[in-house]
Specification:
This protein has helices at 32-41, 56-62, 82-91, 110-120, 143-153, 175-181, 193-203; strands at residues 5-9, 26-27, 30-31, 46-51, 69-74, 97-102, 125-129, 138-142, 170-174. With 204 residues, the chain is of the alpha/beta class. Bound molecules: guanosine-5'-triphosphate and magnesium ion (MG). It holds the Pfam family NTP_transf_3.
Length: 204
């Protein structure tokens, strides 16, 4: 089978969460990013973690013993926003396609990700649209054109996260189709201490 990569974009400052930062905050006894990595590991052959250099040690500890080859793609310049994180992560990918997710989605649905890989085949991106909004941090990209699209978007300061998608050959996966293949819980993110309590309750 074609090899598939997973990219976890984790270089944000976690301002709404505070300390400890959300990537490594414990959710029902497991660091949040570990929950994300475990779910990606079920459907990918390699993982790339994009973060800042100062996050690396804590994240490596959280991912210790993971059952898939894992590499870091550290931001050259921190705080350039999620588009820069997507670009940095996809640059490190060695497969044609990769799923890119945020580090804060503990309910990621492996079946949904597998479906996005299938839908992306022959195109540049399969982008879910569970409601009004697109989900660029829960999408499957063809790495090479997506890196170029991120690069173009970053020629403007603080590009919107949807910006790179607009110039790619995209497949939009709408709500009904998502529901056919998986759970919309996959898109829920944990951003605040209140979100941790809510996720704790659902996972323990
Ligand atoms: N590499 C990189 N990733 C980022 C950056 N900003 C956000 N992200 C990541 O993008 C994803 C979605 O961003 P947010 O949910 O806003 O996370 P965050 O920015 O850490 O949290 P807040 O500070 O509370 O907004 C998260 O997984 C972040 O780690 C950035 O400047 N660089
Ligand atoms: Mg943010």
């Amino acid at each position: 089978m074609t090899r598939r990569s997973g990219v976890i974009v984790a270089g944000g400052r976690s301002v709404r969460m505070g300390e400890p930062e959300k990537t490594v905050v414990s959710v029902a006894g497991t660091p949040l990013i570990r929950r994300v990595a475990d779910r990606l590991a079920a459907v990918t052959d390699e993982l790339i973690v994009n973060c800042r250099d100062d996050q690396r040690e804590a994240i490596a500890e959280a991912l210790d013993g993971l059952d898939v080859e894992t590499r870091f793609a550290v931001d050259d310049v921190p705080d350039r926003g999620p588009v820069a994180g997507i670009e940095r992560g996809l640059e490190a990918v060695e497969t044609e396609y990769a799923v890119v997710v945020a580090a804060d989605m503990p309910f990621l649905d492996p079946d949904l990700i597998t479906h996005l890989f299938e839908r992306a085949t022959g195109h540049d991106v399969a982008i879910p649209r569970p409601d009004e909004w697109f989900e660029p941090l829960h999408a499957v990209y063809r790495a090479e054109p997506a890196v170029e699209a991120c690069d173009r978007a970053l020629q403007h300061e603080n590009p919107r996260i949807i910006e790179p998608i607009s110039s790619l050959d995209r497949v939009v996966v709408a709500r009904d189709e998502l529901l056919e293949y998986g759970s919309l819980d996959s898109f829920d993110s944990v951003d605040t201490p209140e979100d941790v309590m809510w996720a704790d309750g659902r996972l323990s």
